[in-house]
From TrEMBL:
Lineage: Bacteria, Bacillati, Actinomycetota, Actinomycetes, Pseudonocardiales
Family named by the database record: Belongs to the CdaR family.
Annotated ranges, domain RsbT co-antagonist protein RsbRD N-terminal: 25-164
Domain PucR C-terminal helix-turn-helix: 350-406
One of the Pfam families matching this protein, by short name: GGDEF_2
Chain ranges of the CdaR GGDEF-like domain: 179-305
Protein name (database record): Transcriptional regulator
Domain of life: Bacteria
């Protein structure tokens, strides 16, 4: 609704705008008292702020509302900008957005209660028109307040995220991170547990009817939220829907971490995977802040070994993949190991049978996995022994064959 002159609203026999202007100081105090009484968060604000900034905002908001009643026009851009700035200050103070918006509605309720009690029967039409204009006023003001609040929160979040990223980068680069941590409001813990994670696809990411980018972001958000929920302290992450690095703070020095600590971390990773709705495999290592860079490199190497050797989803430390890790180190021994299976190059059937037999540990289990007759497995194992000189059925050759397969995957 818009207009160039006073719409002529009368309640209690007097022009409404004139009446509210006369009682503006007392009305402002009543609104403030009601807000403090009904919203505990406002009651915790300093008295100086309540009598200063908050009172000023209430008064200006009431003036804008009275102008709307006087002219029929919604608030000007200047008036809305004032409300946006006020909402931004509430965001800085950490007052939740729903609380801020509730305060505006309480103000309107107080005004409405102060005028409608005097309404006369012949003023019903004016009461209804004022009600409609009040709803229009809230329709314009509420988005402005919400936008001002959210803009400030976004700025605060971006600043916080940037500061945390600076700390993460310093730790991963092996640079001193104390200054960056102080600027970010963080205390560096005695220990960081480094996770190098690979995250599988959520079913929605592979659904033709779903945008995979959106599904991936939703999966990542669930993963982060669950990780932060389970871990005390500030978790630093550099993650994509496919995985990445996470630094988990821990109050126990790295060298004092117990089996119980690692068992809990395994449960945490399991919960994170379940919440994300995707398989997660992670390499991990622990170190003090100054050792995070080396620990991250080790965790990534452990992850590469675990995935390369076909390990199932879960958490892996160096001790869990010690043999495969050592075999993955470059050198003449690694090259020599890989060549032991060179005679099988191009024969995927024999390679698959070998890998399955070594994993399953028996001809019948292998036959069941490959959907072939056990006699076929026996024939293929003999062919492998003839071609390589290594017999998968002989105990003394099994370790060498496993090592050769591991070396082959890394070349």
């Amino acid at each position: 609704m818009t207009g160039d002159k006073d719409p002529g609203f009368r309640i209690g026999g007097r022009p409404l705008a004139e009446r509210l202007t006369e009682v503006l100081p007392s009305l402002t105090k009543t609104v403030l008292s009601e807000i403090v009484a009904r919203i505990p968060e406002y009651g915790l604000l300093p008295a100086e702020e309540l009598s200063g900034d908050i009172t000023h905002v209430i008064e200006q908001n009431l003036r804008s509302f009275i102008d709307t009643l006087r002219t029929g026009d919604t608030p000007t851009q200047e008036e809305l900008d004032f409300l946006r700035e006020s909402a931004a200050r509430r965001a800085e103070e950490g007052i939740p957005i729903d609380i801020v918006l509730t305060a505006y509605h309480i103000g309107i309720q107080v005004v409405w209660a102060s005028v409608t009690s005097d309404a006369r029967p012949e003023e019903v039409a004016d009461v209804l028109a004022v009600n409609a204009l009040t709803l229009r006023y809230l329709e314009v003001v509420t988005p402005a307040v919400g936008a001002g609040y959210l803009d400030e929160r976004r700025t605060m979040f971006d600043d916080e995220r940037s500061a945390r990223h600076t700390v993460l980068s310093a730790l991963l680069d092996g640079d001193p991170a104390d200054v960056a941590a102080g600027q970010a409001g963080l205390r560096l813990p005695p220990c960081y547990i480094v996770l190098a994670a690979s995250v599988g696809a959520h079913p929605d990411e592979e659904d033709n009817g779903v945008d995979p980018l959106i599904a991936g972001r939703r999966k990542l958000r669930r993963l982060r939220v669950e990780l932060e929920r389970q871990i005390r302290g500030t978790v630093l992450t550099s993650l994509t829907p496919e995985g990445g690095i996470a630094l988990l703070p821990h109050e126990t020095p790295a060298e004092e971490l117990s089996t119980r600590d690692w068992a809990r971390l395994e449960r945490v990773l399991s919960d994170v995977a379940r919440t994300a709705g995707a398989e997660v495999i992670a390499g991990t290592a622990a170190a003090g802040p100054s050792g995070v860079s080396a620990a991250a490199k080790l965790a990534q190497d452990v992850l590469a070994v675990a995935t390369g050797s076909g390990r199932p989803p879960g958490l892996y430390r160096l001790d869990d993949v010690l043999l495969e890790y050592q075999l993955s180190r470059p050198g003449p021994a690694l090259d020599r190991l890989a060549t032991r299976l060179a005679p099988l190059d191009g024969n995927e059937e024999l390679l698959q049978t070998l890998e399955t037999f070594l994993r399953r540990g028996g001809r019948r289990q292998t036959a069941a996995d490959l959907h072939v007759h056990p006699n076929t497995v026996d024939y293929r194992l003999r062919r492998i022994a003839d071609l390589t000189g290594l017999d998968p059925t002989r105990l003394e050759h099994i370790a060498l064959l496993n090592a050769a397969l591991s070396a082959r995957r890394r070349l």
